[in-house]
Amino acid sequence: MILDSKVPSGPLEKKWSQFKADMKPVNPANKRKFKVLVVGTGLAGGAAAATLAELGYNVEAFTYHDSPRRAHSIAAQGGINAAKNYQNDGDSIWRLFYDTIKGGDFRSREANVYRLAEVSANIIDQSTAMGVPFAREYGGYLSNRSFGGALVSRTFYARGQTGQQLLLGVYAALSRQIEAKKVKMHNRKEMMDVVVVDGRAVGIVVRDLLTNKLESHYGDAVILATGGYASVFYLSTNALYCNVTASYRAYKRGAAFANPCYTQIHPTCIPQSGDHQSKLTLMSESLRNDGRIWVPKKAGDKRNPADIPEEERDYYLERMYPSYGNLSPRDISSRAAKRVCDEGRGVNATGKAVYLDFSDAINRLGQKVIADRYGNLFDMYENIIGVNPYKNPMMIYPAAHYAMGGLWVDYNLMSSIPGLFVLGEANFSDHGANRLGASALMQGLADGYFVIPNTINAYFGKGKPQTIPTDHPEFKKVEVEVQERITKLLNVNGKQSPTQLHKKLGAIMWEYVGMARNREGLKKAIGLIQELREEFWHDLKIVGPDSYLNPVIEKASRVADFMEFAEILAYDALMREESCGAHFREEYQTEEGEAKRNDKDYSYVAAWEFQGVGKEPILHKEDLKFEFVHLGERSYK
Amino acid sequence: MRINLHVWRQPNTEAKGHIQLYTLDDVSPDMSFLEMLDVLNEQLIQKGDDPVAFESDCREGICGTCGMVIDGIPHGKQSGATVCQLHMRKFKDGDDIYVEPYRHTVFPVIKDLFVDRSAYDRIIQAGGYVSANVGSAPDANANPIPKGIADLAMDAAQCIGCGACAAACPNGSAMLFVAAKVSHFNLLPQGQPEKATRARAMVKRMEDEGFGGCSNYYECEAACPKNISVRFIAKLNRDYLYAAFKEGV
Questions:
Q1: Helix residue spans in B126-193 (DSSP H)
Q2: Strand order in the sheet with B96-100
Q3: Domains in chain B, number
Q4: Spatial distance between the Cα atoms of A70 and A86, rounded to a whole number of angstroms
C-alpha cells in the first residue's frame, strides 16, 4: 500500500487555490450521470449530499436514523470556530491554522489544516445565509466567545445548541434537494459493507432496519461520513447508536485506518452516577469561559464546597497553566483532573469529580447574564444531578468524546480505496493528536460544503466510471457475507446481552487504553480484548424477531465490530512510543508530568492495513513534513 | 424504588397491541426514565423475551429521537424536558406508570413504542428552508439583525422535531411544529424572499399529511420539551393571511 497524500506543491496559502485552478470540473450537463452515495447525514454527510445535489450530481443519502435530522452532530453545544477576526483581536487564517496544528500536537497534515482554516469563514457566511440563528450583539452583528487552546475569540455560537442549529441548516438544505428529487433519501438503512470491484469502491450493502432485508446500491463514488468511534469505551458522550461499523468494514475491505489511538477525553462531563449509566453527558467547554475549576487542597476533604475557604482551594488549571488557565486544551485539562483525583482530592461520593464553580462570574455579572449564556446547560445539569448549579458548583469529570483518528484520506479526502471518500469525524485528517473545541463542526461543514464538491473532480474529472450492476457477483458475494455474519450472531445462543458485553469491552478500554496508557497495560488489554471477543462469539444472547425491527440485532452487530476494532486501537497506542496530544504514554512524560513528544521517531501518520481478525495489522507510515511551521513545544503555560 | 410499569406492547403495525405489566425492583432515583427501561430490557433479554422497542439516541434532549406517552403526557410530566431527561427521582416508590406510544394516525406504530414520524420530514421538505445554494452567501456581518429578532428566531428554531406537539393535540394538529419552523425563517431577513410561499406550502403539506387544524387548546405548548410558545402559531396565522393577500387565495 502506498500512501500518497497528493498535497499540491507551492506555498501553503496558495495550495488550495492552485488545486482549484488545476482541477478539471465535470461538465454541468454531465453531472447528473454521476451517481454519488453518501452514508451518514450529519454535518459532513448532509452538507455533502445537499451541496453535490445543488451542483447537479445524482445523490442517494443513507442514515440509520428515522430522519436525517437526528445525526449526532446535533448534540454539539459550544460553537464553531472561524477566522473572521470580527473581534479585531488579531485573528487570521494563519493563526487559526497554527492554533489547530499546535492543538493537535503537530501530528496533522499542514496543507489540510490550512485549507480548513481558509474555508472556515465561508462556513459562517453560508450558514448565516441559510438562516442559522447565530448569537448576535445589540448592534445586530455576530457575537463570539472563547474556546480552549486559543487566545483570540473566534467561536460563533447559537446558545448552547450550535451543533443543532448548524445541523438543522444542513437538514434544511438537504430537504430542499429531496423535494426537488435531486437527492434520494434512505432512512433507517444501516451500511453493512463496502463493495470493491477491480480495486475501486462501487457501492454499498445496507440493511433495512425495519424489514431486516439487505440491499445493494451502486455508486460512481461512495462517501462515508459516519462519525467517530468513542463508543468503543462504552460510556462516552456519543449518542447510543454511534458506532464504528461503516469505517471498520471499509478498513476490512482495504481502506487504511489512521491513528486510531488518538481518542479525545473531554474534561467537562457530568460524572457517572451508577452502573445503570447508559451515556455520559457533556457540559460544553464554553462553560470554562466563566467557570473556575478547583478541588480542595487537602486530600480527603469532604466538606461542603461552600464551607471550604478560598485559601484551601486549589484552582489547579490557573496554577499550572497561568496564561491559558481554565481554557487549557482538552487533553491537558482532562489529565490534570485525573491527576488531582488520583491524589485523593476528587470530590463527589466517588472521588472522581472536580468542581466547576460559577460563583465569581455570577457575583461579577449577575445570574441573568450567566443564564443568558448557559441557561440550557444549567437546566440540563440540574435535571440530571438534581442540584441547582446557580447555587452550588457543578461537578465534572472527563469522558470519552471524540475520535481524531479515522480512515486515512489524501488531500482530496479519498481513502486508500479509489472512489471511497471519507468526511468529517470518520476521517483522520485535520485534528492530529488532539482536537480543539469548536473545531469539529468547522471540519464537518468544511468537508461537506466546500472541500468534497471540489475534490471529487479529481476522481470524476477522469471520466465517468463504468457502472457495475448490483447483480454483479461481487455485490452478491458481499451480501452473502453480511448475511452470514448476522446469522452467526443469531446462532450463538449464549447468555449475555450485547450491552453487557459492550460494557465489559468499555471497562477494558477505559482502564488500559484510556486517559493514560503504558506498555504493560496495552499488551494486557490486547489479550483481554481477544479473550472477550471469544466470549462474545460463545456467549452472546439475542432475542426477538429476525425478520422485523429488532434493536438487539442492531446493537449486537455494532458491538461485534467494536470487539475487533478495539484491538487495532490498542496496537496503535502500543506502537506509538511517545506522548502526543490525547495519546499519553506514562513512560514518556516530563518531570512535571507533561506529554513528551518524540518528533525524531514518530512524526508520521500511522495507517494500518487489515490482515485478518486477531492478526496484527501492517503499519504504513505517512511522514509528516512540516515546511511552514516550526515544531515547537506545546506549552500552555 | 419499586415501580409497576404498564407498557404498550405491539409486535408490528398491523397487530393488535395490549398493555403488559412489569414490576421493577431496585430502581435508583438517579436513573433516567430510559435507563430504567434499559434495565427492564436487560431483564427481558435474560428471560428470553422480546425487549420493549423504543427509540432514543443522544440521551441529552436534543436529537428528538425519543418520545413516548407517560401517564397520558408525551415525554411525561416534567415540563420542558424530553423523556430521556426525565429522571426517576420524579417518581415515588410503588408508583404505577403507564407507558404508551404516541397516539396519532399520522404516526403509525411500528413496534411497541416505536412510531413513524416521517410526515414531519415531508413538511420540512415542502418549504422549511432558505433557498441559498452553497457559494452564494455574502459576508455574515453584511446584514445586521437586531438581537431581539435573532433571539426570537432562535426560540423558534430550538424545535427538535420529536412529534410531541401533534401527539398531545386533541385535534392531532402539527401547528406548533409548522409554526416554529415557519417563524424561525420568516422572522429573519434571510427568510423574507420565500416568506409567503413557505407559510402556504408548509401548512398545505401538513393538511395533506392528515394532521388536524389548530383550535387553540395549547396542549402542544404544555407538552413541548423545548417550551416553544404558541405565540408562534399566531405568527404563522398572520404569515398565512399575508400570503393570501400577496398571492391570492
A1: 147-157, 164-168, 175-187
A2: B18-24, B3-9, B96-100, B69-70, B73-74
A3: 2
A4: 32
- Whose CA is closest to A436, among A332, A345, A358, A308? A332
Three-state DSSP class for residue A142 = strand
Helix (H) or strand (E) holding B22: strand B18-24
Taking the CA atoms of residue B225, residue B151, residue A73 and residue A504 in that order, the dihedral angle to the nearest 10 degrees is -50
B198 touches chain A (CB under 8 A): no
Residues from chain B contacting residue A541 (CB–CB below 8 Å): 45-46
Interface test with A, best of B34, B62, B110 (most A CBs within 10 A): B62
CB contact burial A176-210 (16+ within 10 A = b; e otherwise): bbbbeebbbbbbbbbbbbbbbbeebbbbbbbbebb
Across the interface, of B49, B87, B137, the residue whose CB is closest to A384 is B87
DSSP labels for A463-524? Answer: -PPPP--TTSHHHHHHHHHHHHHHHHHHT---SB-HHHHHHHHHHHHHHHSSSSB-HHHHHH
Please answer yes or no on whether B147 and A136 come within 8 Å at the CB atom: yes
Residues of A in contact with B144 (CB under 8 A): 136, 139-141
H/E run at residue B6: strand B3-9
Return the active site residues of A.
330
Q: Is the pLDDT of residue B109 over 90?
A: yes
pLDDT per residue over A92-151, tens digit each?
A: 999 999 999 999 999 999 999 999 999 999 999 999 999 999 999 999 999 999 888 899
- Asked if A552 lies within 8 A of B11 by C-beta distance, the reply is no
Q: Which of B55, B79, B111 is the last residue before a domain boundary? A: B111
Q: Are residues B69 and B10 in the same domain?
A: yes
Cβ–Cβ below 8 Å for B12 and A136: no
Q: Does B4 touch chain A (CB under 8 A)?
A: no
CA distances from A432 to A109, A261, A269, A572, B163 (A): 8, 11, 23, 14, 40
Strand partners, B109: B115
Q: What is the least distance, in Å, from the CA of B52 to any CA of chain A?
A: 10
Contact A453 B134 (CB under 8 A): yes
B 54-113: CB under 8 A from A = 55-65, 78, 80-81, 85, 87, 89, 110-111
Question: Domains in chain A, start-ordered, CATH in brackets?
Answer: 266-400 (3.90.700.10), 473-623 (1.20.58.100)
Q: Which residues of A560-569 are buried (b: 16+ CB within 10 A; e: fewer)?
A: bbbbbbbbbb
Domain coverage including residue B225: 118-247
Q: Which three cell numbers stand for residue A418?
A: 479509489
In this prediction, residue A349 carries a pLDDT of 85
B71-90 mean pLDDT:
95
Block residue for cell numbers 448549579? A389
Residue B44 sits at the chain A interface (C-beta within 8 Å):
yes
CB-based contact (8 Å) between B13 and chain A? no
Query: Are B183 and B199 in the same domain?
Result: yes
Residue of A nearest to B201 (CA): A179
Same domain, B136 and B94: no
Bridge partners (DSSP) of residue A30 are none
**Residue recorded with cell 490525547:** A582
pLDDT, residue A637, reads 81
Give me the residue from A65, A384, A449 closest to B65, CB to CB: A65
Same domain (yes/no): B127, B89? no
Q: For residue A204, which phi and psi values (nearest 5 degrees)?
A: -140, 160
Check residue A193 and report its DSSP letter: E
A239 vs B34: CB contact, 8 Å cut-off? Answer: no
- Answer yes or no: is the ipTM higher than 0.90: yes
pLDDT at B247 exceeding the cut of 80: no
- Whether B131 sits inside 8 A of A176 (CB atoms) is yes
Region A243-263: what's the mean pLDDT? 98
CB A401 within 8 Å of CB A230: yes
Whole-number Cα distances in Å, B194 to A177, A286, A515: 16, 35, 50
What is the rounded distance in angstroms from the CA atom of residue A222 to the CA atom of residue B230? 43
